[in-house]
Design brief:
By secondary structure, the chain is α/β, with parallel strands linked by helices. It has two domains: 19-223, no CATH class; 229-407, 3-Layer(aba) Sandwich (Rossmann fold). The chain has 14 helices and nine strands. The protein has a six-stranded mixed sheet with strand order 6-5-4-7-8-9, sandwiched between helices. A three-stranded mixed sheet has the order 1-3-2. Strand 2 (54-56) and strand 3 (61-64) form a beta hairpin. Helix 1 packs across helix 4. The structure holds zinc ion. Zinc ion (ZN) binds next to helix 4.
Length: 408
């Protein structure tokens, strides 16, 4: 018991919490999976009959129903402890906040997708879980995926399903408040707990030779994060287009494709003219065909999604060696010449000279190019393709007013 232990929130007429049984289950979970011990012991127990089983908030408080503890055997309670701490270690609430707004609002579906991400790993690890648990198979979904991948396959839920704000992100009225409240863990401490758990898992794997697959992938991601350039690039393009269109949140401007009644109806917010975009491709650079195709595919895909069709998109191939800039209508027309002598300023100038001046210019290059000295009067995104080590080994940094995304 820490001195800041929060008060028992169970009304006096209800079952008192069997703390001995609950803590025995935590001890068992920590003893069986020692790499989770520090995280499990960072959780503060808050008894409350407001939750049906157990749940966590974003500040590592674990809300526990005394009735649930009473009726659940210790081995299953141990599994639920690991389930709850998994929501927090896997930063479910942080990841939920990066979903589109409509998905974030659908707490029950989101929470079930998150439970699927956790429970298939726990069951594969041989942990018993109480009946009624969610798992991907219930929805015909494969095991071993992340909740972001499961979400589309989880149908709308008639009943609430709530593991707390530590899962889906929205605080329930039974939660105790922010990190400043009783025994709350702050963001920095939570990051440290995640890192320590990932390191403990790696050490466990080295000494024992085994670690459940789900935790192994998670620990790798924590210790050696792979920056998902597609997400970064898509975010930069969306944001630039939204900004250029004068919209703060364009997601509310598009009627859902699942709402056929709205088809053909022009919503007031859609009358805003869509911005036009120019993509300038460095054809004399040293980037590979595959990387270029992937980057261009991502850019054109996002543009199509936000409503910037081919009429508002100019793609320019820029071979500065011969001072030639040509407008292309199909990606297959772009020939990569290789070699050096890139000057993407030529391509940017050509793009800005078009009759319909672009609001956003996206430059795909290997980075070995000079950049304009001054802001060019539109949003400029530099997509640097190829080995980042090459880039850092001498290619000029784009100026600070250029938004830069690195691929490779
Ligand atoms: Zn859960």
């Amino acid at each position: 018991m820490s001195p800041t232990e929060p008060p028992d929130r169970t009304p006096p007429d209800r079952t008192p919490l069997d703390r001995t049984k609950l803590l025995a289950a935590r001890y068992r979970a920590a003893a069986d999976r020692p790499y989770l011990a520090a995280a499990l012991y960072a959780l503060t127990v808050v008894p409350t009959s407001r939750v049906p089983t157990m749940g966590v908030d974003r500040h590592w408080r674990c809300y526990v129903s005394p009735e649930f503890v009473d009726r659940t055997p210790v081995p299953e309670l141990a599994g639920v402890w690991i389930h709850e701490v998994a929501h927090l270690l896997r930063d479910h609430h942080g990841r939920a906040a990066r979903l589109p707004a409509a998905d974030q609002r659908d707490h029950a579906r989101l929470n079930i997708a998150q439970d699927c991400e956790i429970n298939d790993d726990l069951l594969a690890d041989g942990l018993p879980l109480p009946a009624g648990r969610m798992e991907p198979g219930l929805f015909g979904l494969p095991s071993g995926r992340l909740f972001e991948e499961y979400l589309a396959g989880v149908p709308p839920q008639p009943a609430p399903h709530d593991c707390g704000s530590g899962a889906h992100g929205r605080p329930g009225d039974w939660e105790l408040g922010g990190a400043d409240g009783p025994a709350g863990v702050g963001g920095v401490e939570a990051e440290a707990l995640r890192r320590a758990a990932a390191e403990a898992m790696r050490a466990h794997r080295r000494s024992r030779g085994t670690l459940p697959g789900g935790w192994e992938r998670w620990a790798e991601q924590v210790l050696e994060p792979v920056v998902d350039w597609r997400r970064v690039l898509a975010g930069a393009v969306r944001e630039a287009v939204a900004w250029a269109g004068g919209a703060v949140d364009y997601t509310y401007r598009r009627p859902s494709r699942r709402t056929p009644a709205l088809r053909g109806v022009v919503l007031p917010s859609l009358r805003r003219p869509l911005p036009s975009v120019a993509v300038v491709i460095d054809t004399s650079g040293s980037m590979g065909d595959d990387d270029l195709a992937a980057a261009l595919g991502e850019v054109t895909g996002v543009l199509r999604e936000v409503g910037v069709g081919s009429r508002r998109l100019a793609v320019l191939a820029c071979d500065a060696d011969v001072q030639a800039v040509s407008r292309v209508s199909a990606v297959e027309q772009i020939g990569l010449a290789g070699g050096g002598g890139t000057d993407m300023r030529v391509g940017i100038t050509a793009a800005l000279a078009a009759r319909e001046r672009p609001d956003v210019v996206i430059v795909l290059t290997d980075g070995w190019t000079p950049w304009p000295d001054e802001p060019v009067g539109c949003r400029l995104i530099a997509v640097l393709i190829g080995e980042t080590t090459d880039t850092s080994a001498g290619a000029p940094e784009p100026p600070v007013w250029v938004e830069t995304v690195r691929i490779g």
